[in-house]
């Protein structure tokens, strides 16, 4: 069973495409993960800012 040059090239290109799609898929997954973590960090930072402002307002009320 001998593979022709054309068959070898087709197999090689198929393997290359599968590897390329796998790498792009992994990069897309990482990008989505980073976007999700960025959103969470933004949300948490906002909650911390609101809690800090409320704590400061409470401290001012206690002094007067």
Distance between the termini: 94 Å
Structural class: mainly alpha
Count of helix runs: 1
The dominant shape is rod-shaped
Compute the CA-based radius of gyration.
28 Å
How large is the share of residues in beta strands? under 5%
Mean residue pLDDT: 89
Describe the protein.
By secondary structure, the chain is mostly helical. It has one helix at 5-63.
Structure summary:
The protein is an all-alpha fold.
List the helices and strands and how they pair.
Blueprint: H1 5-63
Provide the descriptors you would attach to this structure in a database record.
mainly alpha, single chain, 64 residues, 0% strand
């Amino acid at each position: 069973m001998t593979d022709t040059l054309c068959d070898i090239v087709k197999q090689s290109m198929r393997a290359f495409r599968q590897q390329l799609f796998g790498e792009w898929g992994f990069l897309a997954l990482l990008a989505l993960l980073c976007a999700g973590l960025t959103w969470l960090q933004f949300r948490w930072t906002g909650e911390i800012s609101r809690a800090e402002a409320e704590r400061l307002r409470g401290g001012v009320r206690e002094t007067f």
